[in-house]
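Protein: FAD-binding domain-containing protein
Species: Rickenella mellea
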Amino acid sequence: MLSLPTVPLLLAAYLGGAVSAQVTTDSHSAASKACGLLKIELPNLIAFPGSAQYGSDIAHWATSSVQNATCSIEPQTSKDVATILGIVGRDDIRAPFAVKGGGHAYNLGHSSTSGVQISMAKFNALTHDPVANTVTIGTGLTWDQVYTLLEPLGIMVAGGRVPGVGIAGLSLGGGYSWKTDQFGLTVDTIVAHDIVLPSGKFVHVTNKTQPDLFFALKGGLNNFGVVTAITYESHPQTLVFAGSVAYAPNVTDQFNNAVANFDLKNSDPKAQVIVTYASVFGQFSSSIDLFYDAPSVPPGVFDEFLSIPSVKSDVKTRKFTEFLSTTFGNGDLGIGPFKVAQNVIPVLKYTIPVLNQMVNQVTTLGASLTQKFNGSVVVVTCSAEPFTLPFAHSKGGAYPHPPSRQVTPGSPFIAVQATADPTQEAILANSVKQLSHAVQATAVQEGQSRWDDLLYPNYAIAGTPLTLMYGSNVPRLNQIAKNVDPRGVMQLTGGPKFGAGHT
Ligand SMILES: Cc1cc2nc3c(=O)[nH]c(=O)nc-3n(C[C@H](O)[C@H](O)[C@H](O)COP(=O)(O)OP(=O)(O)OC[C@H]3O[C@@H](n4cnc5c(N)ncnc54)[C@H](O)[C@@H]3O)c2cc1C
Ligand SMILES: *[C@@H]1O[C@H](CO)[C@@H](O)[C@H](O)[C@H]1NC(C)=O
Ligand SMILES: *[C@@H]1O[C@H](CO)[C@@H](O)[C@H](O)[C@H]1NC(C)=O
Ligand SMILES: *[C@@H]1O[C@H](CO)[C@@H](O)[C@H](O)[C@H]1NC(C)=O
Ligand SMILES: *[C@@H]1O[C@H](CO)[C@@H](O)[C@H](O)[C@H]1NC(C)=O
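Structure follows.
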């Protein structure tokens, strides 16, 4: 991630001579200037600190992802978006800005800014094409909103697994779904993007009309413009057999055996699970979310999990949306404002030593951080995501997910109740890196991971090198970014950046 003060420097290096001379070195005054012009151009869409709109525009799932923007704005049309990009990117302004969909980015600055905060909230249309079996969704919607609209139509799309997550970020970064073993990552089910390019031009992107952009938008995040809508393949939806089961610490060994067996033996793409080891305020527990994409599950698939004595279990036949809301609520942690650090551990198969190491790390880090953050609730979790063949339906795209190397995104996460203490962020980041490293080291020893396995961009912690997320696609993505954004407008926003010659 670029820190904001470095943006003008990188631009200077990237653009060279004539243009760099016009780049303002004061991002604060650039933002003020942009906000002043936006107030004149789009007076009904802009908001300033203190207003309700501003509050919701800068809000994020995690407090640690929020920044106080100079102003915020909710474009309503692609023309509004073009106007905004025109102003922030003007050669004599070059204001930092951010584009926010669902606001669930884990990293500061990826969808937040001290400059102009763009919220896509008004792009909330959803249309269904029953002939083409596609659904077109505005990038201001969240997955739970989408599923609530689709369920009465008897269809679904392969989107996010937890309520509250935005369709935008998840779809532009990859997308692991309850349907991934059946249909692929979310990007594999996308047939078109509507985008406002950095030039202000509106383009409907398909593999036929714009193959480079189509490729780039499948994992390349906010580097190529502002996406206003995405078109997905839809699939019929029945009731599902799903729910979650929680276990006391005294059955962890039995549970780990069941997880390793499931990962090794399951070949039914309708069966998906998320395994979570958690330490909350120092208390350890394990749980599993079970999902079978039909009203009943064939014998054998989940039996081992269901036969272990549990402290809570609600697995049953139900509506898709009811499973999500019962299992995850609104997706919040329920501990008030919190700071987070998230990362990813690429794993082929979760063997027992790998699972034991997750348990061990969660337990010891949970204890030490609970002591360190004296009094604040600390949540340390590590999830195994034992997909069977998540890349079997890969059609390529910016985020490489080749069928030849089917790593799954093991998911370590740490949260703490937010205080004003500015050292919290660094402690969380270092701890989650330490946890990831320890678990991956065991997976490497087990032959289930390699240190150069690619990391899922939507989970990877800020600062992860581009090549560790995008591999050999980096040069092509840099070139596409330079072609589509010769003036480096999207360099003014945060997150992994292409086109600046950086890796
Ligand atoms: C509780 C929770 C559950 C999750 N579950 C899953 C899961 O099941 N599967 C999975 O794959 N991931 C999951 N994730 C990770 C998720 O994919 C990322 O956090 C993702 O960034 C969320 O998208 P968003 O729109 O909410 O985020 P935002 O913070 O709004 O945006 C994220 C990124 O997308 C860019 N962006 C947003 N809108 C646009 C736009 N219109 N045009 C261009 N760029 C844009 C932003 O600039 C930013 O770089 C989860 C995250 C959380 C917090
Ligand atoms: C952002 O603004 C709020 C409200 O004015 C303030 O409480 C908070 O400290 C500010 N945060 C930062 C990081 O400046
Ligand atoms: C395991 O712990 C649970 C919950 O504390 C308890 O109900 C159960 O009896 C314990 N089982 C064994 C075998 O000790
Ligand atoms: C921990 O919290 C207690 C009670 O709030 C306080 O008295 C103590 O000084 C704190 N210790 C540290 C190391 O912050
Ligand atoms: C685009 O089409 C080509 C040629 O049919 C295909 O090989 C490729 O996988 C497609 N790309 C995507 C991202 O769907």
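Remarks: The first helix runs from residue 7 to 15.
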